[in-house]
């Protein structure tokens, strides 16, 4: 292998390392809890030394912040782009957003966050504050905007858009908590796709004008 090829390979490895460390951190946080997770164990899981971790992250808290930015927050930004398409009717946007977010709850990494926040948020309020600010609050804001648009256009009933947005998101968080906490006690895997489909129909019918006539 030439010196240039070795240099390029090393650079690719270096560029990928933060993501590898974050994947290892999420696995450690989820399996052991945030308090019990140690930087040296995260490093070992990622196949590097503890010193290498400090080249990229100063603490576990900083790693969690980076995790939220790299995984849930990036998906929230994608949801914002979906909601910004004014050529799509408000009802269809609500359906698309719920389908998108429901699919995310089937992602092995995404569905770990709600349980992690619930289990460790009390002792580490910064974790809960970060997740609420960057994921929950932004997601509620996106849904609220679409619901408000549907109300203005006469498609949705005069509901409290923010409360309705919470009602839209809450069952999706429930599905993640169920899968990471209770599914192992069930005889069959949780049907996330079917659950999300049922939720979409129930929610849209609940806010749609004239749906009860």
Short description:
Helix content is 74%, strand content 0%. With 213 residues, the chain is an all-alpha fold.
Topology:
Elements: H1 3-32, H2 39-46, H3 50-56, H4 60-70, H5 72-83, H6 90-104, H7 112-120, H8 125-152, H9 161-181, H10 192-207
Helicity level = over 70%
CATH topology of the largest domain: Tetracycline Repressor, domain 2
Low-confidence stretches: 1-14
CATH class of the largest domain: Mainly Alpha
Query: For the residues shown, what is the average pLDDT?
Result: 88
Tally of extended strands? 0
Q: Beta-strand percentage?
A: under 5%
Order of helices and strands: HHHHHHHHHH
**Biggest sheet features:** none
Shape: elongated
CA radius of gyration is: 20 Å
Structural class given helices, strands, pairing? mainly alpha
For the record, the CATH architecture of the largest domain stands as Orthogonal Bundle
Number of domains: 2
Give me the CATH superfamily of the largest domain.
Tetracycline Repressor, domain 2
Q: Distance between the terminal alpha carbons, to the nearest Å?
A: 73 Å
């Amino acid at each position: 292998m030439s010196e240039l090829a070795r240099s390029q390979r090393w650079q690719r490895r270096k560029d990928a390392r933060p993501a590898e460390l974050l994947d290892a951190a999420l696995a450690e946080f989820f399996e052991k809890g945030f308090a019990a997770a140690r930087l040296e164990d995260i490093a070992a899981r990622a196949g590097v030394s503890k010193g290498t971790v400090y080249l990229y992250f100063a603490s576990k808290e900083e790693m969690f912040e980076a995790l939220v930015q790299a995984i849930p927050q990036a998906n929230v930004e994608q949801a914002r782009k979906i909601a910004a398409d004014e050529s799509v009717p408000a009802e269809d946007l609500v359906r698309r957003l719920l389908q998108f977010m429901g699919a995310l709850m089937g992602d092995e990494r995404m569905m770990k966050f709600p349980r992690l926040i619930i289990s460790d948020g009390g002792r580490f309020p910064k974790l809960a504050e970060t997740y609420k600010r960057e994921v929950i609050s932004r997601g509620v804001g996106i849904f609220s905007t679409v619901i408000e648009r549907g109300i203005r256009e006469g498609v949705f009933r005069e509901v409290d858009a923010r409360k309705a947005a919470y009602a839209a998101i809450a069952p999706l968080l429930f599905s993640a908590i169920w899968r990471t906490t209770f599914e192992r006690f069930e005889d069959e895997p949780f049907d996330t796709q079917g659950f999300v489909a049922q939720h979409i129909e129930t929610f849209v019918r609940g806010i749609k004008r004239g749906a009860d006539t």
